[in-house]
Amino acid sequence: MLRENATYIINFGQTVKDLTEGNVVKDLRFVFSTGDYIDSLEVKGSIVDALEGKPVENVLLMLYDNLADSIVYTEKPFYFSRSDKSGKLEIKNIRADTFKVVALEDANLNYLFDPANEQIGFLDSFIVLNDSIVPNIEIRLFRPQQPIQVSETALKTYGRASLIFNQLPEDVVVTHQDVGQRVYYENIQDTVRLWYDMDTVQSWSIYVQKDTLLRDTIRIRALDRGRYRKAQTVRVVSDGKKTDAPTAIDVHKGISLTFNHPILAFDTSRIFLLEDSSQNLVLPSISIARTNQRRLRLLYGRKPDTQYQVQLLPGAITDWFELQNDSLLLDFKSLLFKDYGNIRINLTDMDTAMAYVLELRSKDGLLIAREKIQGDSVFQKNYPQLYKGNYGIKLIEDRNANGRWDTGDYDSRTQPERQAEKALDELRGNWEVNSETSVRQLLDEKPKLENSNGPPNQ
Length: 458
What we know:
The chain has 458 residues and is mainly β. Helix content is 3%, strand content 43%.
């Protein structure tokens, strides 16, 4: 049944074409009213992703004359439109009134909000439409926080149990039933990996807790340790592509070797570091990295533009499962000092009552540094000895001061925390990039600000 005194629009989309050429009639609409006149007010807007700041296509912008918060769960909107590829949209032929404004990623096409599967965004206040103004609004779309849970497991291989969560497992405590096994925990983004080894053949349990409550129990069945050991070798692994060229190493750092299993022990009498073409013997300091038990670090007096070779004789490395390596030869080459520069960051116009998180990242997303800032109006820091290339910063307005970005919540009327990114000028070798950024402008207006460059301080 049609409403009284209401203006209706029928959008034909791309369904109408001319008969001879098949050309689509663009923006063809049929407008009619059940009252004495056609409503003529309109709203323009755009939808952006709150996490990435990018425009979002095919999202509903909905206007409700019923201003109750619960309306998004119970009633379909009378006025709505969908965003285009640029995230922009408009709603025309609206009557003068006060409206609640909500954006919705309507996954199941029912025009109602389903928190478990859909993203939402909203304006903090109502809009009042009259003849004197055409609102142009921007809404940040966000996915509500979902209860953290184990979404997938990988348990079929002896010695390794992987728990994949539906989000970063922050504030989650993973423990295990002690049956005499040796266990090492490794966190990799959304995955918690447990390496284990045991003399007995028996099953045991892993426990997932949050807020002191037991959320999940994963049972590890008894598996054949002997069969697993027969199929395994100790080897060096890399995230990069395989190449015959020597691996480039940071001239300011030592050599790191990452193995396929955690390291139980190493024998320095079987590890040799040879320098340049004459293969001079170098005596490095060798240790297992504190933050990664699969990584062996070799520290030594580095030279730029120099070839190095690491020789691991049989038995140099004993891994978690008491397996030992065969002979390994690994080639490296140090980079040049002149290929490094400095980045100096200066943040201004910060709210002293607000907490912030600053991230410095390389172009490929590698985290270089992460700073928590609170109570300051200005932040300054120099990041020396960075390899030439492209870098950028991300700034998060950390309203709850928990050190990370938090999404919004419709029911509590909480907007997602604001964040913005800024690309820095290219860092050249033996140079310094000075980035001065107004936090207020970066978060509010997100302009492209200029940087001043100069040679680094010697």
